[in-house]
Each structure stands twice: as C-alpha cells, then as structure tokens.
C-alpha cells in the first residue's frame, strides 16, 4: 500500500543531496524544482530521521540556485542572475536564499548559465537544474542528444506525468516513435505504467538517461489525482522494480510506494 508522507519530506524522499540535482522526464519538472527550492529554504529541512537532507543540521537557510541545462522560463518571484561572475552571483545569494540563474534566450526563456556547474555548486548548497524538455507533454522518451545531465549531478529525479496514462502514445508522449521502439508499442496504443517502465528500464540500462556513477536515482509520478493514479504509480513500481514516489502538488499530497 502507498505510504502517505508529509510534503516536507519530498527532498529527503527524493534523496536530494547538497550539490547538483538534475530533474528530467516530463509532466511536472518545473513545479518539482520550485517545490524543492521552497522546502529546502527552510533551515534544517528534515529527512526521515529529523536531520538535514544530507544528514546534517543546518543552522541557517541554505543557498539555492534554480537553473537549466536546456531551456526554462524564469521562476516568478525569484531573483534572476544572467551574468557570468561568481562574485556577483554570491552577492545576490547573500540577499536572497534562492536565485534563478541562466543565459537570456529567445521568447523570454533562459538557456544554461555561462558559469560551469561545479562553480555553481561551490556558491550554493543546492543547484537544482531542469535538464530535459518535453513540450509540456506528460510522457517522454529520449533522443540521443537528451537529457543534458551535468556530470556533477548527485541526485537524478525522473518525472512521469500520471495524467498521460490511458491516453494514446501519439497524443501524450514526446518523441512517440522512440517511445514505441523502446516499449514495443504502437502509436495508437494506450500508455500504461508497464510500457513506461519498459522505456525507463531501457533508457537507464543503455545510458539514454545518463546517470553519473555516484548519483542517486528517484522516480517521481506527478499529477496524481485519486486512487486510479495511485494504482498506476503502484503498477509502475512493480513493473520497474524500483521505489516510486507519487505527488499531487495542488493538494500537497505525497506518497511513497515501495516493498
């Protein structure tokens, strides 16, 4: 049975460690990043044992950078830094616990920052990066050039949108032809947790989703609305053979699904 957790446990449940976190997949990456930043801002963000997320007791609010390796829109109500000087970014972080960092791109979006990720990790406790694109679709398979996971990544979060289950592959999957090839499905087939598990297992095993050797990997099912979606998350867990987290952000509801 899914175990209900307080939303404050999300960073610990996703094994978010100090350093770089990359969020990939589809169906809720941006909301996940914003939620993690809000929860991590609290001094001593608790894990399951009441200590900090990385096992320490933080005395002050940590510094957090929100950024991307692809493209994002600036986070609202968050200071934005678009330069390339570490000293300037450090000054912004002195006045604001969370800063959005990137390079101006077309249509008001941000591209990857000019500073390297190891430099960002020296300036902030947590560097939270959106490392994938999905064109706002809930299901994703990856082409050879994506996702763009920094080599410094210590926590890798793979997002799956539960609102894609039950609809046809061609209507809800980004790169449906790759999804079909990896899952053995047809474009008109309904997306099931078992098909998503096949794609994820394939991409993790052959490096299509690159995972640095020391990084943790977490599966997060978003847009969970009701028992049917919880059952879908449970099926994904059983088919994939990995623990799965399920979240309903509007309702501030979080579940852990594991043996």
Automatic annotation (TrEMBL):
Pfam families: YqeC. It comes from the Bacteria. InterPro entries: YqeC. This is Selenium cofactor biosynthesis protein YqeC.
